[in-house]
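Chain A, query sequence.
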Amino acid sequence: MIRKLFDKYFELVFWITAMVCLAFTNPANHSHFSLCPFKWIGFTWCPGCGLGHSIAYFFHGDISNSFHAHWLGIPVVFGIFYRIYVLARPVDYLARIKAEEAKERI
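Chain A, predicted structure.
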């Protein structure tokens, strides 16, 4: 049962948590903890970090800095929100099963 719940809701919880964390992150603060291996090595620029900063700036309403940090940040936000919608929408599984059974009969 736990495995079914994990399989069903892990991606949804992951994306919601990621969006909430980026919304509360201060992108201008450079002293925060990072999981980025490029920062550990000492590089100052990373495409993934730029994307994260872009999303954080967008959540703070700073469109100009968001676009400057990474030009794909704003489209990615909308793409992730669409994915959250798809994962969270209610699905009528009985209707889906009946439709698949009807398709098999043909």
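The helical segments are 2-24, 37-41, 47-59, 63-69, 73-88, 93-105. The first helix runs from residue 2 to 24.
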